[in-house]
Amino acid sequence: xxxxxxxxxxxxxxxxxxxxxxxxxxxxxxxxxxxxxxxxxxxxxxxxxxxxxxxxxxxxxxxxxxxxxxxxxxxxxxxxxxxxxxxxxxxxxxxxxxxxxxxxxxxxxxxxxxxxxxxxxxxxxxxxxxxxxxxxxxxxxxxxxxxxxxxxxxxxxxxxxxxxxxxxxxxxxxxxxxxxxxxxx
Length: 185
What we know:
Elements: H1 3-12, H2 18-39, H3 49-62, H4 72-94, H5 121-137, H6 139-149, H7 155-162, H8 166-184
Helix pairs in contact: 1-2, 2-3, 2-4, 3-4, 4-5, 5-6, 6-7, 6-8, 7-8
């Protein structure tokens, strides 16, 4: 059992000092995740990777009822989701004068998850809305999609985090691409 897993177990057991012990163990990995995620954002983004790590970590440990992670992978998936939400909220705040109107749909097949994205705020919000709609239909496919788009994981890496087979992960990815193609026409 790794040190991270041991501390996660202590957190799940209600140890009040465990969140403080966890941060030094996961900080570099969270920072790398945030740097990768910020590379996918527009170049003039006002949020920095360090601030994203700190905000995500605070959100993860803020709610005592949600302090249970089954594994290291589960924790990092939760961290990636927290970062995604922070970036979406940031985009919505920056775009609040346009909220509710003129959003363009973005074809997922055109998004290259391995390269920095030049998505506008409207496109980012439209993509997030589409991912939320997909989640209503199939949560596991949406989770894989989020890990690919927002955490920058490969299909194989996402399969490990989700604890599913590589072939199932590729099936989910193909389904997500087909779903977006049909949804966005």
